[in-house]
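From the pipeline queue, job 12 of 40. The input is one protein chain; the requested action is below.

Action: predict structure.
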Amino acid sequence: MYYISVNGREYRIIKLLGKGKGGYSYLAERDNVLIVVKQIHHEPCDYYTFGNKIEAEKNDYEHLKNAGIRIPEMLDIDIDNERIVKEYIDGDTIFQMVKNGKSVDAFLPMVREMAEQAKAAGLNIDYFPTNFVVQGDRLYYIDYECNGYMEEWNFENWGIKYWSRTPEFEEYLYSH
């Protein structure tokens, strides 16, 4: 069994959920409650430039909360060890649904609402479908990444290209 400590509290790691540009996210458990522990990494990313990743996560979380974007609650942050504990949102990602041939049409109005909230706050979120989880009939943005708003990176100009079996989606599947 593998454990990870966040601010002196031990969490039992169950499995790797995924690796993103900024870190590794693990499904973990403490006191019979499932949570996510994200460990920041410093591996190179050839298409994105980072500053202080843990501070960016903290600041981005606040920006998203203030914008009204539905995100998992940040439960703890360990600045020194670059770890975040956040609420676990159980469900399929939009990516899994598209990959498995399920329609995500019911969730397009929800992501468009998030896009409007983000734009109104001067932000873009990362619209890639691995960053969105469906729980019941609600859509959650499970990443905390956000950037200043740019038209070319909004949902309609970039994100939508990955929310169905488009050539861009197929290319991503092929290359990963």
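Job complete. The domain at 7-175 is CATH 1.10.510.10 (Transferase(Phosphotransferase); domain 1).
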